[in-house]
Amino acid sequence: MVALRRGRAVTVGLLADQLLGEAPLTPHPVAVFGAAMSAFERASYADRRPSGAGYAAAGTAVGWAAGALVGSTAAATYVAVAGRALREAAAGVALPLAAGDLAAARRRLPALVGRDPTALDGPEIARAVVESLADNTVDAVVAPCLWAVAAGAPGALAYRAVNTLDAMVGHRSERYRNFGWASARLDDLAGWVPARLTAALVAAVRPGRARAVWRTVRADAPSHPSPNAGVAEAAWAAALGVRLGGTNRYGGRVEVRPRLGAGPPPSAADIARAAALSRDVTVALGVLLGGPAVAAALAGAGRRLARARATGGRG
């Protein structure tokens, strides 16, 4: 029954995000958390894995405590989820890209990805956006919802803390190679089940491409350096019929990502299709998590009605 109640509350939080967008809080709790952990990093940084593990543990504990303080699973889910903001940011890049304004598209791209946009052409910008939609549907929608069902408000905000720590220090850079290792591995662990559920939901909402989704996830995802991003990106590539992967530049660092999917490179028009896929996965997730609670409520009402009939309406 606890899981059913949490599922209903998570669906309420998801619906609030879809209708209202980012929580209108100033400053936003995630920004406050990021500033606090940046200060903690400055005070505790050492180029050793144990120091990074302590940092990751402290940040996760802060997220858990914040969730316990909030208390409401629905409210914590609303704060932790960012599906509507993700799609709006993608649209903000797609519009100038479709109009041929590469400069504007490049300016808006850092809201979605960390890669260097200065030399990206149209297809590479589109690829970056589609890959971000895939990755962040896991990180900003499916994963916080699953953790909210598993552990209530503390689970939702602890997961958001873990994911934020990975974004802050989990990069493959010289400074964070050791210090960020624990944060990156913890994020991998926390997102493992959500990434695979996301792929299953992609297949469910695009049944005509379901076989291609499973085939591509099995064949291409294992070669991706991330155990979770590869699954999500492979599912998106197959569902959209496009090819993802390639060379990504992050300042002075270059990463070559494996090919995912067998179609053409994505275009500006594919961004809208990728955003629609993210929306449909979110809706399917809400039905999956909230449906059992609705079904249980209907079943309880049916039992009460049957008892009332059996007793002739007497209490």
Name some characteristics of this structure.
315 residues, mainly alpha, two-stranded antiparallel sheet, 73% helix, 3% strand
What features would you describe in this structure?
The chain has helices at 2-20, 29-44, 49-70, 73-80, 83-98, 102-108, 122-169, 176-179, 181-205, 210-220, 229-240, 268-310; strands at 247-250, 253-256. The protein has 315 residues and is mostly helical. Strands 1-2 form a two-stranded antiparallel sheet. Strand 1 (247-250) and strand 2 (253-256) form a beta hairpin. The chain is globular, with a radius of gyration of 21 Å. The two termini are 25 Å apart. 45% of the residues are buried. The model has no long low-confidence stretch (mean pLDDT 91).
Offer a quick outline of the entry.
This protein is mostly helical and 315 residues long.
